[in-house]
Write a structure and sequence with these properties.
Layout: H1 15-24, H2 30-43, H3 47-51, H4 55-61, H5 69-85, H6 93-97, H7 104-115, H8 124-133, H9 146-155, H10 160-176, H11 195-198, H12 218-231, E1 236-237, H13 238-244, H14 248-260, E2 265-266, E3 271-273
Helix pairs in contact: 1-2, 1-7, 4-5, 8-10, 12-14
């Protein structure tokens, strides 16, 4: 076995642990997720445990994983699991998709990896493996297409347990061997069948793919403001927030956005707090 020893893929991991991992892994590398996942599961080992905590504590525990609205959605999903499903994560894709913050990919992944269901799980790594091995292209399209989903469905084994194992295997192949920048084709079990290798490994002919800017962006500003609130035991005076981001218009715009997203609560005395935090 060459796959990574990930705690949420180990035998015995609860469906809740799998759901938490899949939400955390959205647009976030495994190395950043794993320590936060461990702390989260120690503190909130069940949906009921998280649902019973203030939403602001979920935002605080999210630490620096990015896209903190996911913390609020996971908190809301925990509440929905308790209210609608007796505290047990449902095993069907339709029921999973009805939970806050759970889309098609996350529902398919939880159904497959937590319950052994035959579902079509297509993430960035899977798309890249399919694009190369079957399509002969260096990289997939910028956004998931219906044709890619259909291809993944055709390649999926008919037997449910085998299909779940297949999904993990293709994801791991993309993450460890068929990587975006430096694929290890010599170590790939598909090298003799890979259409991209057979074509001479041509470079990507699509539009340039630029990385996301960070310095000076609203995302960075929002992160700084949230960091102050996460590190505080209670409400924070507006002056402390002004000190971490001097550009007034951008700071106020980002603070208003955090309030609108439900990540921050403004108080009548001009202070700010995470939702449900001590005043």
């Amino acid at each position: 076995m060459h796959r990574r020893d990930l705690p949420w893929r180990r035998r015995g991991c609860s469906p809740w642990g799998v759901l938490v991992s899949e939400v955390m892994l959205q647009q976030t590398p495994v190395a950043r997720v794993e320590p936060v996942w461990h702390r989260w599961m120690e503190r909130w080992p069940t949906p009921a445990a998280l649902a019973g905590a203030p939403a602001g504590e979920a935002v605080r525990a999210w630490d620096r994983l990015g896209y903190p609205r996911r913390a609020l959605r996971l908190h809301a999903a925990a509440g929905a699991v308790v209210e609608r499903h007796g505290g047990r994560v449902p095993d069907g894709e339709e029921e999973l998709r009805s939970l806050p913050g759970v889309g098609a990919y996350t529902a398919a992944a939880v159904a497959a990896f937590a319950f052994g269901r035959r579902t079509v799980v297509v993430d960035t790594n899977v798309r890249r493996v399919h694009a190369r091995a079957v399509g002969g292209r260096a990289l997939p399209a910028p956004a998931l297409t219906a044709a890619e989903t259909a291809l993944a469905g055709r390649l999926l084994p008919a037997d449910a347990p085998t299909a779940a194992t297949w999904s993990v295997a293709v994801m791991e192949l993309g993450a460890l061997v068929c990587t975006a920048r430096a694929p290890r084709c010599g170590s790939c079990p598909l090298v003799r069948r890979c259409a991209w290798v057979a074509a001479g490994s041509p470079p990507d002919d699509g539009p340039p793919r630029r990385g996301q800017a960070w310095e000076g962006t609203d995302r960075q500003c929002r992160g700084r403001l949230l960091q102050v609130l996460r590190e505080a035991e209670g409400a924070v005076a507006g002056g402390r927030l002004r000190a971490v981001w001097p550009e007034e218009l951008q700071r106020e715009r980002c603070l208003d956005g955090l309030v609108a997203d439900g990540l921050v609560e403004p108080l009548a005395d001009g202070r700010y707090a995470l939702p449900g935090s001590p005043r």
